[in-house]
Specification:
Number of strands: 2
Structural class: mainly alpha
Strand content: under 5%
Oligomer: single chain
Largest sheet: 2 strands, antiparallel
Number of domains: 1
Number of helices: 11
Order of helices and strands: EEHHHHHHHHHHH
Shape: globular
Strand order of the largest sheet: 1-2
Distance between the termini: 36 Å
Mean pLDDT: 93
């Protein structure tokens, strides 16, 4: 078709493509921003305790978020940053996905119910707001908001909001998840020399930690790919930490913490089984982006 002697040629939009340099830059920045806070504290033999606000590792938790914003602004400009921010507040995901977001709370309530029915002692109410790096004087509302906003958004804006979609441009969702889980686990390493709750881990517990983190990554991949909502994964991540990492969860024999770990592992195993069955039958898998 021509108009006034000029041929109209359709413009082809730029398709997203796998860019290793961008991804490596993101990982280096995420590590750099976070470790710049954690390592000096750990090097001076300071310890972060549950229920105390200083010293704290919480500023380091926004490292992945800062890295995601920086690399997005560098590669995609203002349009990309606006898209990132839109996914951070995307709440129209359907009530079924909101139930998944809140599932750690439901699992937590079931655990407490079983403990009460079995006659096991339930930790005092004050222990439920004793979280590493946060003052317990903030109360339930303050601690919950801090964990959901700083911990949830600080990590998930980077890990699931930026890194996962980038990895999936080159790898299948499960492979991308395993790669990201390894990077995510390594990002935690300096915290083992700083957090009191981590310093007690024996070598035998490290595989348990990595398995739980990998299973959590599988759940978060599923949730993010089906909703495209950073808000959704930030809430699930934050609630899982709130129910499994307080002084109440880790006190005594760690019954609550172990039960929440089991919840995440079982949920991931169910997802992996369904994923395998779909792949075996040539059907779309549930981990794929919608």
């Amino acid at each position: 078709m021509t108009t006034a002697g000029h041929q109209l040629v359709p413009q082809q939009s730029e398709r997203p493509h796998f860019a290793p340099l961008r991804l490596v830059t993101f990982f280096l920045l995420a590590y750099g921003f976070s470790w710049a806070w954690v390592i000096p504290w750990a090097a001076t033999h300071r310890t972060v305790f549950q229920g105390r606000g200083w010293p704290t590792h919480f500023p380091s938790l926004v490292g992945p978020l800062l890295a995601a914003v920086a690399v997005t602004a560098w590669t995609r400009g203002g349009l990309g940053v606006r898209d990132l921010l839109a996914r951070m507040v995307r709440w129209r995901i359907g009530w079924r996905w909101w139930l998944i977001c809140l599932s750690p709370l439901a699992a937590f309530a079931v655990v407490l119910g079983f403990m009460a029915a079995a006659g096991l002692s339930i930790p005092p109410r004050s222990d439920f707001v004793r979280f590493s790096g946060l003052p317990s004087s903030w109360g339930v509302i303050g601690v919950v908001l801090a964990v959901l906003v700083i911990n949830g958004f600080g990590e998930e804006t980077g890990w699931r909001g930026y890194a996962l979609p980038q990895l999936q441009l080159r790898f299948a969702p499960l492979t991308a998840t395993l790669i990201l889980a390894a990077v995510w686990a390594a990002w935690h390493v300096p915290q083992f020399f700083l957090l009191d709750s981590y310093k007690d881990f024996s070598l035998a517990m490290l595989p348990v930690f990595f398995l739980g983190l990998t299973c959590g990554a599988v759940v978060l991949t599923w949730l993010y790919n089906r909703t495209s909502s950073i808000l959704a994964v930030a809430i699930w991540h934050g609630l899982y930490n709130l129910t499994g990492a307080t002084a109440a969860a880790t006190s005594g024999n760690g019954t609550i913490s172990a039960a929440m770990w089991t919840f995440a592992v079982l949920l991931a195993l169910v997802l992996l089984y369904v994923e395998w069955q779909a792949h075996r039958r040539g059907r779309p898998t549930i981990l794929q982006p919608r």
